[in-house]
Structures are given as C-alpha cells and as structure tokens.
Amino acid sequence: MSETISYTWRGAITDEEMVDLVRSHGGNAVAGWWSKVKEHSLGWVGARDGDGILVGFVNVAWDGGDHAFLIDTKTRGSHQHRGIGTAVVRMAVAHAHASGCEWLHVDFESELRGFYLDACGFRPTDAGLIHLPSRR
Ligand SMILES: CC(C)(COP(=O)(O)OP(=O)(O)OC[C@H]1O[C@@H](n2cnc3c(N)ncnc32)[C@H](O)[C@@H]1OP(=O)(O)O)[C@@H](O)C(=O)NCCC(=O)NCCS
Questions:
Q1: Which of 27, 29, 49, 57 is the most buried (most CB within 10 A)?
Q2: How far is the CA of 86 from the centre of ligand 1 (A)?
Q3: Is the pTM of this model over 0.90?
Q4: Which tens digit of pLDDT belongs to each residue from 45-65?
C-alpha cells in the first residue's frame, strides 16, 4: 500500500485516540492511562494516516540524564507489517540522541527479537526485571 504516513515528535495525542489504537491491536486499553503517563516522557512519536487517524506510537521515558527507555510501541492492527513500527522507533532513536541521551533501553518478549534487534537495530544485552506485585 502506498498510503502516506506522517510522523511527529511530541505531537498532540488524546487519551481517546490512544484507547482506540490499543484496542485496534487487541491490547488492554485503560482510559486515562496516556494522560497520566505523558507528563513523565522525554517525548513520544505518533504516526498518522492520510485521514489523520493514529496508526502508530512509541513512548520514550527518561531518567533526566543519559538513559532513555523505549516503551509501549504500538501499530494499529490494520496497519502492521508496513514498516510503521520501525519508523516510529527510528524517529524516537533520533530524538533521544538529539536530546543528549547516551543510552536507549528496551525490553520485550522473545517473539519480538526480530523486530527490535533486526528491524530496529537494538543490540542484545543482559537485563533484569521484577514484577513488583508478584514479589513476596
Ligand atoms: C510490535 C509492533 C509494534 C510492530 O509494528 P509493525 O508496524 O508491524 O512493525 P514493522 O512493519 O516495522 O515490522 C518490521 C519487521 O519486524 C518484525 N516484526 C514486526 N512485528 C512482529 C511481531 N509481532 N512478531 C515478530 N516479528 C515482528 C518482522 O520481521 C517485520 O518485518 P515483516 O513485516 O517483513 O515481517 C506491532 O506488532 C504491535 O503493535 N504489536 C502489539 C503491541 C506490542 O506487542 N508492542 C510491543 C511492546 S514491547
């Protein structure tokens, strides 16, 4: 498909648009989530189709210094496998770099190794994770 997709850094995205995007790929949308989260972002990338519909997103959280964290990459269900996910990540990488960050982190399920490592250019590293509500 040759549809033109436009990409913005820190462009306005409403909570309702985010809920619609999450539902479009079968995710569990929580109303109010985006309004709360965005205040803590270095920035985010939004992708819109020719009609202005939100079709892609990624958020960049930040420690206030050298480290940024890529989180919540999403592509509309009807628009996946057209390079939109790779493109939103590419723009996030460029803006994190331009903002003075040295490292951009991401973690993901193993099924997405091809996306993050091959398509987006992250290199594998050891990392750790604790699900805090499950902690005894
Ligand atoms: C992961 C996701 C953002 C990828 O978006 P996308 O726009 O389809 O990605 P791209 O078109 O840029 O994909 C580039 C390549 O990455 C790999 N890839 C993309 N999605 C993949 C998936 N779900 N599983 C495995 N590999 C995938 C493929 O090699 C793909 O190339 P191909 O289309 O020729 O097969 C999208 O599948 C999505 O929104 N998933 C639901 C939410 C999610 O799980 N987000 C990740 C949170 S860590």
A1: 57
A2: 8
A3: yes
A4: 999 999 999 999 999 999 999
